[in-house]
Amino acid sequence: MEWYTVGLGLMGLLILFIIIGLPIPFALAAASIPFLLNIQSLSTSLITAELKLWGVWVDYILLAVPLFVFLGELIGRSAIGPNLYWFMHSKVPVRGAAAYGSIGACAGFGAVCGSSMVGSLTIGGVALPEMLKLGYSKRLSSGVLAAGGTLSVLIPPSLILLFYGIVTDQSIGDLFIAGVIPGIILVSFFIIIVAIWGWLRPEDIPERDNSNAIPWSLALSAILPVAFIGLIITVSIYSGIATPTEAAGISCVATIILAFTVGGLRWEGFLGAIRATMQTMGYLGLLLSAGVLFGFVMTYYRVPQQFTEVFSAMELSPYLVLGVIILFYVILGMFLEPVSMTFITLPTLFPLVAASGFDLIWFGVIYTITMELAVLTPPVGLNLYVIQALARKEITIIDVIIGCLPFIGALIVLLGLMVMIPDIALWLPSIMD
Amino acid sequence: MRKVIARQLENIALLLLYCGGVIVIIQAFWMTYGVFMRYVMGNPDGMVTEATALMLVPVAFFGLAFALSKDAYPKVTLVRDLLPEKIQVIIDRINLVIMVLTGMFFSVAATEAAFRSFHSGSASEILLWPRFYFWIPVATSLIIFTLLALVRLISYQHPSSLELTEQEDT
After folding, report:
1. How far is Cα B86 from Cα A134, in angstroms, rounded to an integer?
2. What are the pLDDT digits (tens) for B90-130?
3. What is the count of residue pairs from A and B with beta carbons less than 8 Å apart?
4. Which of B28, B35, B76 comes nearest A380 by C-beta?
5. Sign of CA dihedral A308, A311, A316, A322
6. First CA to last CA distance, chain A
7. Model pTM?
8. Average pLDDT of chain A?
9. C-alpha gyration radius of chain B
10. Regions of chain A where pLDDT drops below 70
């Protein structure tokens, strides 16, 4: 079979399965298996599957995934997140404090949690009812929280950067540090958006936030664990004490201790964190295994290599190639969630990015920003639904979508800035080297 | 009868899930100990990297059946939801058939691997743990997943009629 027949056949089957609502890990596997059986006999295909299952999961770098997921779930189920939000807005005596506090809490939470959905759920779960009660408009409240959750994806540790590093074989430490400055810029953009929003539509933000001041003991019980865990992750990785995987392990142990001692975590919450982590792993286990099988078939027929050669032969400007890839991800992101997108498309597309001469660490941050856009764009924007589900009676999905629009604009501006000034992402890793 | 079997399988899925949770906690503490021994005591633990990486293999599959029981796999149902209920029933059944077949494929691969691993020796050159320590949990998780998917296929009901049945039960 020609490479394009296989490429189109695989993608066609995959799209068909996804459209009929087959869960994505099974869609990947079911699309690959017929082509695998075309290459090999059934018994050899089973051995290939066995080798791929073993090969993909005996991976020390991947070990960071369950640990970071568990860490995020533990913090999400303790009182650390809610208290962090309470501190962020009750100790900031400015108009719009609850909105700024939401952004600050999401950023702080992002420094210890790598999942955008957990970030939105944890901070949104406390901040959304509070903001609505204080008199903030539905659109501002839902928009700021849905967008704020995406900060967890860019500010290290980030699961998307971790997966990107595994697929493209880039340094996880470099990717994490490359996300820091873009993350800070994004936080600043979000703050500016809230300020401009309040200036253009003063009725959307109350004059005063009549909220109770948080006692300092409670405030410290939120700030110190977040600062401590964040420091463990960054300092241990960048001082060379630990690898990113070891940093995940150490911070996980620290989180268990802190969540029980100062974070008010209960046994039921701990079991809930285990269940949520293993549920995520259950989906990832098959997704990665099926993704590797899919990649094996693609590579056997040299689909990624041929695809890159065809694109390179067109002699398109590298920035046009980049523009097409970003547009592709923005459109695809409207229908697929980020982790699936990473394992379905990235193995084929990243060689093209490398062939166009772009730095893969820099592209990792660009890729992560497009994934942030993906969780905010309908019809399958995960964060939109997470936030709407938190106040189903008061807020419609349209409110959340409209509320997110300025923040989506900020993400697009950040993408533009990153393309114009790549050092935004590359400066910190170069200093660390 | 089918309900009883489904409940038993879900209980096993939960048991496997907690086994995975325990392993994750062991991995976290062992790695912390490894870093402590390396940097504080100057006496590195030679097993930690290999052992924790190998332990990830069962962890990746222990939650498989639980995720199915909670319908937690990501999927795009935009088109399916627009179709008439009769077509939705057919599509859902087709999806479950594909899930069962995929589960069977991976289950057979893992079971064969588990049997072969009884004779193939240790899991790695550094760590002399037998390879079947890791394949047996993977094969068990995949078999339980496939059986649960099969039970779901046999006793499939459209979500709307399922809600009605649940209301009647209450």
Report:
1. 47
2. 999 999 999 999 999 999 999 999 999 888 777 777 788 88
3. 190
4. B76
5. negative
6. 46
7. 0.87
8. 89
9. 21
10. 91, 433
